[in-house]
Amino acid sequence: MLAAIGVDSIEALFDEIPRELRGGTLAGVPAALSEMEIARLMHGRAERDGHWLNFIGAGAYEHHIPAAVWQIATRGEFYSAYTPYQAEASQGTLQLLYEYQTMIASLTGLEVSNASLYDGASALAEAVLMAVRCHKSARRVLVPASVHPVWRRVVRTLVRNQGIEVVEVPYNAASGHTDLDALARYAGRDHAALVIPQPNFFGVLEPVDELTDWAHAAGALAIAAVNPIALALLRPPGEWGGGGADIAVGDGQPLGVPLASGGPYCGFMACRRDWVRQMPGRIVGATVDAEGRPGYTLTLQAREQHIRRAKATSNICTNQGLMVAAVTIHLALLGPEGLARVARACHANTLKLVSALTAIGGVTRAFGGALFHEAVLRLPVPVAPVLRALEGQGLLGGLDLRQDFPELGHALLVCATETKTDADLAGYAGHLARILGKRSRPAASAHRPRT
Amino acid sequence: MLIFELSRPGRRSAAQAPLQVGVASELPDRQLRRKSPRLPEVSELDVVRHYTRLSQRNYSIDTHFYPLGSCTMKYNPRACNAAALLPQFTGRHPAAPDDTGQGFLACLFELQEMLKSVTGMAQVSLAPMAGAQGEFAGVAMIRAYHDSRGDTQRREILVPDAAHGTNPASAVMCGYLVREIATDADGNVELAALKAAVGPRTAGLMLTNPSTLGVFETSILEIGRIVHEAGGLLYYDGANLNAILGMVKPDDMGFDVIHINLHKTFSTPHGGGGPGAGPVGVNATLAPFLPLPLVAGSDGEYRLLAEADRPLSIGRLGAHLGNAGVLLRAFVYMRMLGAEGMRRVAEFSTLNANYLMEELRRAGFEVAFPRRRASHEFILTLWHLKDETGVTAMDVAKRLLDKGFHAPTAYFPLLVPECLLIEPTETESKQTLDDFVTAMKEILREARENPTLVKSAPHATPVRRLDEVKAARELNLAWKPR
């Protein structure tokens, strides 16, 4: 090969690079490991992390994933393919994306979906940017405090530099949903959009019809931030209020994507057809080939960075394609009835857990609003040591809200999906009762995962 | 056939959903969905067969040579996937306490350390979920840095005209104006144009090196000096890091902030368009602005740093800590390569590119920058062929599909007419490269003898050339029953 090139060493191929730039050492990179050695290392680390009985939700949810989902999604033809720019060589991925878009559009009750964004939080930020483009004049957006606190921070990070102002709307302390009276104070001012979470971060259902109608009366777009499992049972954003939400976003993780310490997940986004040219990300359209056969291709690419550069709707290029493959296969396996059963099981399990835990003295439900599959509980004592004690029993008891919602006191966000059995729920209640019962004594400190 | 067309009312894949479902409900009637979503009603076998068949309508690295310039489509070792899918890793909740994920966090911490070593940067954040998000984070840090000094009149980001489209788009998302800098005849940034453009309004310059033209920017130190003297910062788009891995460090080239595409250089799979990961690295001055979370480690104990630890951070880019599973795959890949293996990546990817360039030149193709060495990729320009035969770069790309190869990148960078950007990567053998040359020779002959055959390609793919105008004019973005 060197002879064909006409050089006598590989080194000579680097002769255009200035000498002084060459030859740093890689002191921080250890020597190579064989596949067997790295497997042993990784197994050891995985075992150290162990298995836990998990009652945390807060935007990432443990669900059963059918075996077929990842066996098919990790086929080399999906796993090792590139973005489907060469349509004739990518009909598998393109048709799958078209099916995904159909499923998301139908779940959200909106007309069009894109082919994914990074995750739910960044999808919400993109929706805010999109709403500002659609609205044309206003650069202020209303985001209720009942939206996931990290999602709110992500929105700020991603929109701040474009001079967009994020205004926080308080929640009602009794119901736990967006305070409609407080919202009235923002009427008459110029807002591009109102974000409406369903269910919200507290697990509570929002008055979505009133909020959507309020947004539209105020000349703002309504952005729904939804849990896709809940949409099996709850009215879809496209049917909210008189006119329906304009944009819906959420995290696709609950639909076949493992928790995996937070990623990769995928963000979904759907909107009314009127707004499709302002939508960020890839979109697949159906068409025909030179012989009139049906086929699929990326379309409306003039919105995207590789064509429009500085004038693109977003800088997004690589998205979460493989996660979308998993979501599509997962939704196809569950079907409408399966998805509804999962949703009902989550709802029923969470109600069971809440009733078992609130039967313990001093534990109460923080909010009166109807919940879906999460709830905020108030404990009679600080949450952190209780969670540590539960950890000692191999159990992750929920999320401590002290940092993000100090006004709620000793508040704990819990979630029980369809993965929890009656014995799991009773076990949690038993441990919590014992911990709270002997809380005068120091909590157990042995952090032993179940193996 | 779409999955929806296989649907039959009442058909179910029953074992997938819970069999026993509690009846308790507090969902108010007015909130309930009245019409089921349009999901297919099919059996598990229907699903498995349908998506297996769909997968067979794809080209992929596992099935085809994929010389897609600027995308680094190298082989994805299976060990990386197997490790990331260990049940303890996939089962871990992102909000689980740090002490329940020490094995996982150790991998991320060590990944940060290795990325610091190969780039020379002082600190690294793994948070960005793709290259473009890394660019956003990098430019946002540049802005945060200038703002922190009260230097708020810097409103422009400079990018070469050959840059990836994400560069200008990311700069705009950070509230900047974009100025393009011209390229000279040998593919270098035009220093005179750069000198004329920099000034008190310059926030920074975004640069890929080796550039998107497949050549090393030889004046990089001079470029850095010009930008720094004007008070701007130098941003490294790591898209082409593969070409210089273990050989040249972005820090030594004078870059202040960089992003790395783990799905390119460190071989995490492209997955039909993602997920990727775009970690950012910075010098010590910019370190306080890194996006969150970061993994801190001392005495073998690891924890995630948050807002309280890093009050000047530009913030969070996603709900959790980035594309964790992608990060694990890259960690495994880097540990299997080791330091020696990394240098081998640069050597063999450069060797393969220069060999392929030379063989194609010999076969009668025109190289866009004939006086230059190829980096890990190179550009052919087919405008003479188009003049002579009417066959375009796109036609050649499509005809390659018939010959069993994925097409190279066509029409990027935009400034080279009728171009094909070809990147063979280090994981392809000489035999595969020779087969590709043979196919290209055949196409050259076909273009002269039977141009219609090439212009109407592909012929052997699952579909022929698609009507993209119809797709855009008669938008059909979701299936509806007839």
Q: What is this structure, in a nutshell?
A:
The complex is a heterodimer of chains A (451) and B (482). By secondary structure, chain A is of the alpha/beta class.
Produce the secondary structure layout.
The complex is a heterodimer of chains A (451) and B (482).
Chain A lengths: L1 H4 L29 H15 L3 E2 L12 H7 L2 H4 L11 H18 L3 E2 L6 H16 L4 E5 L4 H11 L5 E5 L10 H5 L8 E6 L9 H10 L3 E6 L20 E5 L15 E5 L12 E5 L5 E5 L6 H4 L12 H38 L5 E2 L8 E5 L4 H9 L3 E2 L2 E2 L10 E5 L6 H16 L14
Helix pairs in contact in A: 3-11, 5-11, 6-7, 11-13
Chain B lengths: L43 H12 L22 H7 L2 H4 L11 H18 L3 E3 L5 H18 L7 E5 L5 H8 L3 E5 L9 H7 L4 E7 L11 H10 L3 E6 L18 E4 L1 H4 L14 E3 L11 E5 L2 E5 L18 H39 L15 E4 L1 H7 L3 H10 L6 E2 L8 E4 L7 H20 L1 H5 L12 H6 L9
Parallel strand pairs in B: 2-3, 2-4, 4-5, 5-6
Antiparallel strand pairs in B: 1-7, 6-7, 8-9, 10-12, 11-12
What are the key terms here?
heterodimer, A: 451 residues, alpha/beta, Aspartate Aminotransferase, domain 1, Aspartate Aminotransferase, domain 2, 2 domains, 7-stranded mixed sheet, 4-stranded antiparallel sheet, globular, B: 482 residues, 3-stranded antiparallel sheet
